[in-house]
Write the structure tokens for this entry.
Amino acid sequence: MGVLVLRDLALLELLYGGRMIEFYQFFLGGPVRHYDYTWFRAKTPTPNAATEPHCDIVYMGRGTPNLYTSWTPLGDIPYEMGGHV
């Protein structure tokens, strides 16, 4: 994991503990684990610059289709920046 994540216990708990992991355990019906690396994506509030729907497996698949990712905003996100078609 990057230095930012390793030093931020609140971020580690948000991403890999508590409610996030509980959701995936419920959704998948059993134990789950996360990667040892965290991908961060910074976005600026640019008009009409929302992230289009996409597939993360090409970046994170590592040979398995058994993968789910979560977009976890760290602040207020205007509707215009959310994923939309």
Residues 22 and 28 are 10 Å apart (CA to CA).
